[in-house]
Write a structure and sequence with these properties.
heterodimer; A: mainly beta; seven-stranded mixed β-sheet; four-stranded antiparallel β-sheet; 11 strands; globular; B: 110 residues; five-stranded antiparallel β-sheet; 0% helix
C-alpha cells in the first residue's frame, strides 16, 4: 500500500520550454505532497510543499514563478518547470506522508535534462 | 539548524563482510529517524523508522539502531544485491518534511 506514481521517469526538453511532472497517490489520499530535487552525489533538498486546495509553500531560494505546483485533488500533485534552462537539469522526486509503518512514500523520480 | 550527517560517503565490501553505516543527527525534538535505500535513477525505498533511543528494527540482512545522537544501519553478510545508496533522514522540517543526509553508497563485490 501507499504507492505514489510519478511520471514521466525521464524527459529531455529544449531550453526555454516548460515541463510538467505528475505525482499520483494510487491507494491513499495525499493531502500533502513534498517536492524534492537531487543533484548528483547530493542529498534530497526540499523545494516546496503542496497542500490540497491551497497554495504551495516554497523553500528559501526556490523561485515560485519558475516551479509551479498544483495540488488540485487529493490524489494528484503536479510540478511544472517553466522556461527551463540547463541549470534546472536534475532529478525531481515527490513524496507524501503515508502511514506510520511506511513513513513517507516516494515517487520513482523524474530525470530532467534541459538541452 | 537541524542537520543529518552520514558516514562514510562510500563503502566497498566483499560479499559476506559485515559492516555498519553511521547517521548522526542534530534535531530539536526528533519525530522519527528514517532509513531509505535508493537505487540509481530511482526514488527512495522505505526501510525503517525509529522513534526512540534504544529502539532496534530488523529486515533480512539489515538492522537499524538508534541512540540519542546517532543511528546505525548494520549490514550482516551482505550480498551484491545490497549495493545501493542508503539514505538517513529525520523528520524535523518546518513543513513536517524529511531532512536527508547525503547518503552512503554501498558496493558489495562478489
Amino acid at each position: 500500500g501507499a504507492v505514489v506514481s510519478q511520471h514521466p521517469s525521464r524527459v529531455i526538453c529544449k531550453s526555454g520550454t516548460s515541463v510538467k511532472i505528475e505525482c499520483r497517490s494510487l491507494d491513499f489520499q495525499a493531502t500533502t505532497m513534498f517536492w524534492y530535487r537531487q543533484f548528483p552525489k547530493q542529498s534530497l533538498m526540499l523545494m516546496a510543499t503542496s497542500n490540497e486546495g491551497s497554495k504551495a509553500t516554497y523553500e528559501q531560494g526556490v523561485e515560485k514563478d519558475k516551479f509551479l505546483i498544483n495540488h488540485a485533488s487529493l490524489t494528484l500533485s503536479t510540478l511544472t518547470v517553466t522556461s527551463a534552462h540547463p541549470e534546472d537539469s536534475s532529478f525531481y522526486i515527490c513524496s507524501a506522508p503515508a502511514t506510520v509503518n511506511y513513513g513517507y512514500t516516494f515517487g520513482s523520480g523524474t530525470r530532467l535534462t534541459v538541452v | 539548524e537541524d542537520q543529518v550527517t552520514q558516514s562514510p560517503e562510500a563503502l566497498r565490501l566483499q560479499e559476506g563482510e559485515s559492516s555498519s553505516l553511521n547517521c548522526s543527527y542534530t534535531v530539536s525534538g526528533l519525530r522519527g529517524l528514517f532509513w531509505y535505500r535508493q537505487d540509481p535513477g530511482k526514488g527512495p525505498e522505505f526501510l525503517f523508522t525509529l522513534y526512540s533511543a534504544g529502539e532496534e528494527k530488523e529486515k533480512e540482512r539489515l538492522k537499524a539502531t538508534l541512540t540519542k545522537k546517532e543511528s546505525f544501519l548494520h549490514i550482516t553478510a551482505p550480498k551484491p544485491e545490497d549495493s545501493a545508496t542508503y539514505l538517513c533522514a529525520s523528520r524535523g522540517g518546518s513543513q513536517g518534511n524529511l531532512i536527508f543526509g547525503k547518503g552512503t553508497k554501498l558496493s558489495v563485490k562478489p
